[in-house]
Amino acid sequence: MWDGTVSGSGPAGIAAPVSASIRSRQERAVLVGVDLSSRVSVRRPGADGARAAALAAISDGNDLQEDTTQTPLLTSGLNSGVSTELSVDASLVEFRELIESAGAAVVAQVLQRRSRADAATLIGAGKVEEIAGIAAANQADLVVFDHDLTPTQLRNLEALMPCLVLDRTQLILDIFARHARTREGQLQVELAQLEYMLPRLTGRGKAMSQLGGGIGTRGPGETQLETDRRRIQRRLVHLRGELDGVRKIRRQQRQRREAVPVPTVALVGYTNAGKSTLFNKLTGAGVLSSSRMFATLDPKLRALELPSRRRILLSDTVGFIRNLPHTLVTSFRATLEEVERAEVLLHVRDASSAYGDEQKSQVEKVLGELEVLDKPRIEVLNKIDLLTSEERAGLGTRGIVTVSAQSGEGIDGLLRAIDEALVADPLTDAELIVPQSEGATLAAIEAGMIIHNRAFEGDLVHLAVRGPASLVGRIRQTLEEVSSEK
User: How much is the CA Rg of the chain, to the nearest whole Å?
Assistant: First the structure.
C-alpha cells in the first residue's frame, strides 16, 4: 500500500505515490470503524436498558464501551438508531471488502462509537492504546480507519501505533493505483494522491527536519518539508498540464464522433454492481469484470446496435462508493466527461444487495456533483439471478428494468428501453416508395430501419418502416432528388 513516500527519484525528484500492496507476504490489517452518531436515546428493557442509560450519560466525549471477549473480531459500543445511510455493520462489511481489494487480510476489527470525534486522535487516547496493543499482538502491518483523518490526527496516530496508519481516502487511492492501467488513469490517480498528500506533509518524522545553513548563506536554509512541498507543487502543475492534453484529445475525438451523430449511453452505478459484466453482455467487448471493488477505472467505449437498428456508443465508467473522496471526483473529471456528455444514463444497481436504496442515494449524490441528475436515466436492477421468485415478485418493475448480466435474462427488454429513451434522434414511422433501381437506398433502409411491411408495384417498392428520424429524413431527401432528376 502507499506509504506516503515523497522524496526520491522520479519526475521532479519525487517518487510518485503508487501502490505497493503486493509484498513478499500478504499484509495484515486491523480495521477500525468509527461511528460518530448522536447519543443513544433508545431504551432497552431490564438490565440492558439500565446499562445503556448509564453509558449514554457519560459526557465530555468519553468513549462508549462494552466488554468483549471476541477475538480477533473486537467491537465496542451500542447499537445506534436507524441511519439514513449504510448501517454501521454494512459499512464495516463494505470497508473490509475495500481492504481485501487492496490486497491485505483483516486480522482484527474494532468498532468505536463516540458522541463526537477526538480532535487529537479521532477515537480517544484509551482506544488508541487498545488498538496499538491489538496491532502488535497480531503483528499487523496496517491500521486502517473507515474514516478520514485530519493531518494532525494522522500524525499523532502514526506516532502511537507500531505500524502504518491509513485512512479511508488513502485506502481508496491505493486501490485506484493498483487498477489504473492506461497512462490517463495513472495520471489521474497520481494527481489525486499528491493533492491529498500535500496538506499532510507537516511533521512526518525526521525526514522533514530543518536543514542546516552552510557558511556564506543567509538564514537557516530550506526545510525538507518546504523542499518536498515545492516539488509536489511542481509535479501537480505538470500532471494538470498532461491531463489538460488528455482532455483536448478527448474533445477532438468527441468532435469527430459528433460529426456523424451517434448517441452515447453511459453505465453508472455503485462499485461492484455488475456494470462491466453488463457491458460485456451487451457489446461482447470482453473487458475485465471482477468482484473486486473498482476493477474498472479507465472508460471503455463500444458500439452497440439497438433493436431499431440504430447504433449507439456504450460507455463503461468507474464505480461510485459511499464517501467517494472529492479529490478523486476532481481528478477523474476527464474520465467522467463521458457521463456528462451521455444522452442517457443506465444506473446499474445490485438487486441482491440489502442496501440498494442507500447505494442508490450515494450514486445520485455523485451524479449531482457532476450536474447530470437532469439527464434521462434508466434504472437497471442487475443480478436478479441471485433472487428467489418471491424476491423478484417484490421488486416492483414499474419504471425499472430487471436483468441478469450473468445469464442474459432481461437484456432484450433493456435494449428496447434504451431505444425508447433516446430523444436526440427519435424513432419515427414512415411510408416510403423506392424505385427498385435504387439499390443503395434500399440497402440503407435494410441496414438502418425496421421494415414492417413490403409490397411491390411495377418497379417500385412500397415500404412501411420505423427508424431514426435523421435517417428517414435523409432517405426522403435522396428520393426527392431521384424523382426530380427523372
Answer: 29
Query: For each of the chain's 486 residues, which pLDDT tens digit applies?
Result: 544 443 333 333 333 443 443 344 689 999 999 998 744 433 333 334 333 333 333 333 333 333 333 222 222 222 333 333 567 888 888 899 889 888 899 999 999 999 999 999 999 999 999 999 999 999 999 999 999 999 899 999 999 999 999 999 888 888 888 777 777 778 888 888 888 888 877 544 433 444 444 344 344 445 667 778 888 889 999 988 988 887 788 777 767 766 666 788 999 999 888 888 999 999 887 655 555 555 555 667 888 988 888 888 898 877 788 777 666 666 666 567 778 888 999 999 999 888 888 889 989 988 888 889 999 999 999 999 998 888 887 776 667 899 999 999 999 999 999 988 887 777 888 999 999 888 889 988 888 888 999 999 888 999 999 888 888 888 988 888 888 876
Alpha carbons 395 and 390: distance in angstroms, whole number: 9
Euclidean distance between CA atoms 362 and 131, whole angstroms: 30
Backbone dihedral region for residue 216 (phi beyond 0: left; psi -120 to 50: alpha; all else: beta): left
Joined grid coordinates for residue 256? 469527430
**Distance (Å, whole) CA 408 – CA 109:** 39
* First-residue to last-residue Cα distance in the chain: 75
Angle formed at CA 99 by CA 97 and CA 103, multiple of 5 degrees: 110
* pTM over the 0.85 mark: no
Hey, what amino acid is at 11? Answer: P
Residue pair 23/17 in contact by the 8 Å Cβ criterion: no
d(CA 165, CA 149): 10
Neighbour count for residue 186 (Cβ, 10 Å): 18
The residues, any chain, with a CB within 8 Å of residue 205's CB and separated by 6 or more, are: none
Q: Which domains does the chain have, with CATH numbers?
A: 11-179 (3.40.50.11060), 261-421 (3.40.50.300), 427-485 (3.30.70.240)
